[in-house]
Amino acid sequence: MSRIGKQPIAVLDGIKVAINGQAITVEGPKGKLEFEHRSEISLEYDEEKKLIHVKRTTDDRVARALHGLTRSLVNNMVLGVKEGYEKRLEIVGVGYGGTVQGNQLQLRVGFANEIKKVIPQGLDVTCPDQNHVVIKGCDKQKVGQFAAEVRAVRKPEPYKGKGIRYDGEYVKIKPGKAAT
User: Rounded distance, CA 148 to CA 155, Å?
Assistant: First the structure.
């Protein structure tokens, strides 16, 4: 039995859970998320104890693989609609910067033109200053995916460290050819 999958999910106060066949809907103060799980897994919601139990219908390899995954995804939904998720990015480099205009994130990262990334629905992107980008949302996958896409525009390079990095990310700086 999956160690993660057998743990019940505690539903926090102020969250509504609805299970309809293969679909689960979680609604809270930060938003509403829906997820349709595979048929090998079943979900049960105990309203009195406020617990969601994830169980597998069969004991084959696919069901065992999906057991812990489904539990983690539903747990991320419950935490996301209550507290939300956040990723912080740091833009390092002379003349580099980012701004939010409308539903677009504009990045100046050393190319001849500005890079414009359309902000997905459900995400709140802000730039507290020119060198920082804060991505917030209730869907953990969307927040992480958009942060990865923004970072991929200009990854930090190893000689001067210029580029877009996660806040607190360590970039090992290599010595140049003059060091030899």
Answer: 10
- Please check whether residues 13 and 61 belong to one and the same domain: yes
Query: Could you give the C-alpha distances from 115 to 60, 100, 107, 124, in angstroms and in order?
Result: 47, 12, 5, 19
Phi then psi dihedrals of residue 51, to 5 deg: -130, 140
Is residue 177 domain-resident? no
**Prediction pTM value:** 0.91
Residue 121 Ramachandran class (φ > 0 left, ψ -120 to 50 alpha, else beta): beta
Dig out the tokens for 163 from the structure.
């580029």
Give me the count of residues in the chain: 180
Determine, yes or no, domain membership for 93. Answer: yes
Using one digit for the tens of pLDDT, what is the confidence trace for 8-26?
A: 999 989 999 999 999 999 9
Token reading at 1:
């039995």
Residue that is last in its domain, among 62, 82, 102? 82
Which tokens belong to 113? Answer: 């033109």
Picking from 82, 100, 115, the residue at the C-terminal end of a domain is 82
**Which tokens go with 156?**
């930090």
Q: Which domain holds residue 58?
A: 9-82
